[in-house]
């Protein structure tokens, strides 16, 4: 519950916003903002057939890495 409370207070461009949560008996659910392009995890790991067609240049990889690093830095402050 403490983690949910701390996540609810976050607001950063590189972090998906937690909109709400539900606790019902032993069931738990977190509700995040809709990301129409899907998650970074899905893009990297689940769409393997499309990844082979992509030309990931250094600039694209740099922007992804910097975005992740900025989000992590914000969470650790």
UniProtKB/TrEMBL annotation:
GO terms for molecular function: ATP binding; protein serine/threonine kinase activity. It is a single-pass type I membrane protein. The keyword Glycoprotein applies. Pfam families: PK_Tyr_Ser-Thr. Gene3D superfamilies: Transferase(Phosphotransferase) domain 1 (1.10.510.10). It is found in: Membrane. Keywords: Glycoprotein, Kinase, Membrane, Receptor, Serine/threonine-protein kinase, Signal, Transferase, Transmembrane, Transmembrane helix. Its main location: membrane. The keyword Glycoprotein applies. One of its GO terms (cellular component) is membrane. Residues 1-77 form the Protein kinase domain. This is Receptor-like kinase. The lineage of its organism: Eukaryota, Viridiplantae, Streptophyta, Embryophyta, Tracheophyta.
